[in-house]
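[Automated response] Your request has been received and processed.

Submitted sequence:
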Amino acid sequence: MALEYERERTFAGLAGDYALSLVPIVRWLPKYTLSKARNDFIAGLTVGLMVVPQALAYASIAGLDEQYGLYSAFMGCFVYVFLGTAKDITLGPTAIMSLLTASNSDQVDGKTVPAHAIFLTFMAGVIQLGMGLLRLGFIVDFISYPVISGFTSAAAITIGFGQVKHLFGLRGVRRPFTQCVYDTFRKLNHTIVPDLLLGFVCIVALYLLKTTTSKPSW
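Generated structure:
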């Protein structure tokens, strides 16, 4: 009898610990202080100012209107408040995620259909939620480094060249990579000079800011 009671209590304890691990906010919120809230506010404001232009760029890569980039940049952070386990990271869209969204959704006049992108995001979220509940994160360890490196390198080339049309102010450039390369070189004679000058000035300014700004000692 005592052994059966101990077994039930152990199972109940394990089930309770598992339930609490799914919602970590229950553990740390009672210990939250005003000083931590002030620091989090400053950190959130700083990250938010950086995320806005980044989210606009990711929306462009995904072929969506700008507001969808802002939605994806902030909604993940709101959900992570309740489900997150690390205080030092921020969630949001990435360049590769945006590229995959564009390549796996139907296009109309060079723009991604929003409904398809939303459904794709929902299904990806359901799959990740299921993997999280089943503790299947170890599967990622089976993906070899050369595969990840090759994939990210190819994505960087695709995304980087895809921005050349904006730098030169070209119009009517198709999204698939091979067609993008062909259209870009074919339409170089239609370059908008003010766009090109502004782009180069911004690139030089960013490079100078990166090289001349002193890094913090910490």
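Summary generated for your ticket: The beta strands are 107-108, 111-112. The first helix runs from residue 2 to 22.
If you did not submit this request, please reply to this message.
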